Description:
The protein is mostly helical. The protein is about 40% helix and about 10% strand. The protein contains 10 helices and 6 strands, in the order ααβαβαβαβββααααα. A two-stranded parallel sheet has the order 1-2. Strands 3-4 form a two-stranded antiparallel ribbon. Helix 7 (about 150-160) packs across helix 9.
Amino acid sequence: MRGFGKSGVVEEIRAAGGGIFAVSSEPQSLASEAQDTWELEYQAVGDPHHEILGDCRETDRFDLYIGDTAVLERHWSSHPNGIFQAGILALTEDHRVLYRWHCRPTHQNRGGASGRVTASHVWSRIRDGLASDTDAAWDTDPPLDAPEAFWPYFVAQLFAHGWFIKPKRFPLGRSDDKPTARVSAMKPRLIGFAAAWAICFVLLPARRVLLALAGYAVAITPAVRRVNREFSHIPAGSTPEPGGRSLGTEPPKPHPRQPSR
């Protein structure tokens, strides 16, 4: 979200007579907190019961994948209907679709945690949409602001964070701590871990080291499988459809739709 302000796209959209909002599955208190902390140049709206998303679904204009709630609920917040995966929708005043994109969670984008469409590309496609008189098709292959992750290396980083005993997720704090800095700190641990095994091969009988390495691989296999399940991966063209649950998650308990104010 912050990329739109840093790139100057927010000012360009407003200069063209448009407006921009961020809609979050967080409650309004946390949406407002994010708006202030990140110094967003536009309003953040909380939609924990998916009322806004529901209106978009009813008109078949837009939909989102819904992510697992377990991670954030262990920290500070409740998401009664699940967490929005990222998406972008641009409309005219008469509700014609100028642009639409949603993030399909995969292992390559760490379950939907990374890889957002660049602001300049979105604004370019919106201008193209203004010159048309039909709804824009879904943008399925836009330029993203982050490269795809190499999944085995990311899993190795999670194990490094747990000191190679068990995988440990990187915390989602509300302070100024940068998750990217914590991820980068795992590289020295991985190098040290590989070096320790290399030293063992030099100093100890290779057969015993190989047996120990095989035993370690067997011991961590259940944890690796659990990580593969917990981080959603929805291949292209497979179910669930957008708006369904991401793979490896449990459906939320029904929650009554709240009256609009």
